[in-house]
Design goal:
With about 200 residues, this protein is an alpha/beta fold. It folds into two domains: about 10-140, HUPs (Rossmann fold); about 150-200, no CATH class. The chain is built from seven helices and five strands. It has helices at about 20-30, 55-65, 80-95, 110-120, 140-145, 150-165, 180-190; strands spanning about 10-15, 40, 75, 100-105, 130-135. Strands 3-2-1-4-5 form a five-stranded parallel beta sheet, with helices on both faces. Helix 4 links the parallel strand 4 (about 100-105) and strand 5. It is globular, with a radius of gyration of 16 Å. About 30% of the residues are buried.
């Protein structure tokens, strides 16, 4: 579910809304390392209580605390899912007169591939270049340090996410992805073991 792509300099870093503050830290690191001159942050009303602010605003404050200037941020504060992150940002950039053609997407580790497949399907400019990255941590570290969900919940979410990678192309929401047999076998083993809470 990770792409293992090497970050390259792009027109903008594009942080998609989610519940993990570490993605905002990763986006700020990339900005400070010179990978882009703009940081786009997309996310509307969060499912968690962020004191009345949006996911985008929460992440903007995290990035600002790590040295990213507000004048270099573009906030989209309506999106409620990955597809809307992409289409609403496209509309916002057009309204503001930005003509970005390359993006460094930032998401949670296990959502790299879904973010990639969704962007490739729903970004109106098919010639746009995208690279996907996430916080640089392995699975055990991700689980051990996660203060939102326990390990069982995270596995349920990942099982559900892989199912969406399989099914969403049929609904026109993503481009298809090649899924190796060993990954499908592991997925089926987890489903058979009862990890079904986030299945469609």
């Amino acid at each position: 579910m990770q792409m293992h792509q090497t970050p390259q300099k792009c027109d903008a870093i594009f942080l998609l809304g989610n519940r993990d503050d570490r993605t905002a830290v990763r986006a700020a690191e990339l900005f400070n390392e010179g990978y882009a001159n703009w940081l786009i942050i997309s996310g509307g009303s969060a499912r968690l209580d962020y004191g009345g602010i949006t996911e985008a605003e929460r992440f903007a404050r995290i990035a600002e605390a790590r040295g990213v200037p507000r004048r270099r941020m573009i906030l989209e504060e309506r999106a409620a899912n990955t597809g809307q992150n992409i289409t609403f940002v496209y509309e916002l950039l057009r309204e503001q007169g930005h003509d970005f053609t390359s993006f460094l997407l930032v998401q949670k580790p296990y959502m790299e591939r879904r973010a990639f497949a969704t962007f490739k399907k729903q970004w109106p400019n098919p010639g746009a270049t995208i690279i996907v990255t996430s916080p640089q941590i392995d699975f055990e570290e991700y689980v051990d340090y996660n203060d939102l969900n326990d390990k069982e919940t995270i596995i349920n979410v990942m099982v559900g996410d892989l199912q969406r990678i399989i099914e969403y192309p049929k609904q026109g929401l993503q481009i298809p992805q090649d899924i190796p047999d060993d990954v499908m076998n592991a997925w089926q083993t987890l489903v058979d073991a009862g990890y079904k809470k986030r299945l469609m």
